[in-house]
Design brief:
With about 270 residues, this protein is mainly α. The protein contains 13 helices and no strands. The protein is about 75% helix and about 0% strand.
C-alpha cells in the first residue's frame, strides 16, 4: 500500500497498543458506530461544497471517514476478526467481480446497461466467493432500517420498481401528490392522522424525485444550504441596520429574502 496509508495504519496501531491512548484503547465497534455515521454525513455535506469549487473540506472529511475505517479495522485485528489488508482485498475482489465489462469479456455500452445487470453480477459474485445468501421473506430486507428516512424511502421504492410496482411516468405521481395533499388538508381540518398523512405526502415526493432521476437527500441538502445562505443574508442585513428580529416584521424579512435571491441569481 502507499506510504501515507501505511503511516496512518501504523499511527492507529500505536494508539491502540499498550502505552498508547487510553481512550482509543477503550473503543469498540459499538462505541465508534455513531462517529462513523457522523463522519459519513459530514463527508456528504462537504461534497456539496466540492461541487461548488471548494474541495478542501471534502479532503479533510474523507480523511476523517477513512480514519474511522482504519480504527474499526484495527479493533478487528486486535480481536482477531480481520485486518485492514483483508478489508482492502475483499473490496478489490468485489469490484473486479462486479465489473466484468472492464476486467472480463462482457460488454456493456451504457451505465444503464450496467445497472440493469447489477443484481446478476451480485449473484455471480456470491457463486464465485461461495458466500451464503440469506433467505429473505421480502425484497425490501436489503434496505437498512438505520438509513435516514429520505434515503430509505428512495431505496425502498427503487426495489419495488424493479419488480414493476411503480408509476409509469412522473405525471401520474403529480396526480398522487394532489391526492395526498388533499388528504393532508382533510386530516388537518379533522385534527387527526396529520403525521401519517404528512409522511405519505413526503413519500410521494421521494417517488417523484426517483422518477426524475434526482437523489432526494442531495436535493434537500442543497435546498438546506441555500436556505442557510439566504437567511444568513437577512441576519447580516439586519445587523448592518442595527436591528434585531424583535424589531423586524415578516414583510421586511421577506423583502430581504428576495434581495438575497436576486444577489444569488446575479452571480
Amino acid at each position: 500500500m502507499s506510504k501515507k496509508f501505511d503511516e496512518l495504519v501504523n499511527v492507529m496501531a500505536r494508539l491502540r497498543a499498550p502505552g498508547g491512548c487510553p481512550w482509543d484503547r477503550e473503543q469498540t465497534y459499538e462505541s465508534l458506530a455513531p462517529y462513523l455515521l457522523e463522519e459519513a454525513f459530514e463527508s456528504f455535506d462537504a461534497i456539496q461544497e466540492a461541487a461548488e469549487g471548494k474541495p478542501d473540506n471534502l479532503r479533510e472529511e474523507l480523511g476523517d471517514l477513512l480514519l474511522q475505517i482504519i480504527f474499526h479495522s484495527q479493533i478487528a485485528e486486535d480481536r482477531g476478526d480481520f485486518t485492514i489488508e483483508s478489508v482492502c482485498a475483499t473490496i478489490t475482489e468485489k469490484m473486479i467481480l462486479r465489473h466484468p465489462h472492464v476486467f472480463g469479456d462482457v460488454k456493456f455500452d451504457t451505465a444503464n446497461d450496467v445497472l440493469q445487470n447489477w443484481d446478476e453480477l451480485k449473484r455471480a459474485e456470491r457463486a464465485i466467493t461461495k458466500k451464503e445468501e440469506k433467505a429473505k421473506s421480502s425484497i425490501l430486507e436489503d434496505v437498512p432500517l438505520a438509513f435516514p428516512a429520505l434515503i430509505e424511502a428512495n431505496k425502498l421504492t427503487k426495489k419495488a420498481a424493479k419488480v414493476g410496482f411503480d408509476w409509469k411516468n412522473a405525471e401520474q405521481i403529480f396526480d398522487k401528490l394532489t391526492e395526498e395533499t388533499a388528504e393532508l388538508k382533510a386530516a388537518i381540518v379533522e385534527n387527526e392522522n396529520i403525521e401519517e398523512e404528512l409522511g405519505d405526502l413526503l413519500f410521494v415526493v421521494v417517488n417523484l424525485a426517483r422518477k426524475l432521476d434526482v437523489e432526494p437527500e442531495t436535493a434537500l441538502k442543497k435546498t438546506n444550504r441555500k436556505f442557510r445562505r439566504r437567511f444568513s443574508f437577512i441576519e447580516a442585513e439586519l445587523k448592518n441596520r442595527g436591528r434585531s428580529f424583535d424589531e423586524t416584521d415578516l414583510p421586511e424579512m421577506d423583502a430581504l429574502w428576495n434581495e438575497a435571491k436576486k444577489k444569488a441569481s446575479a452571480k
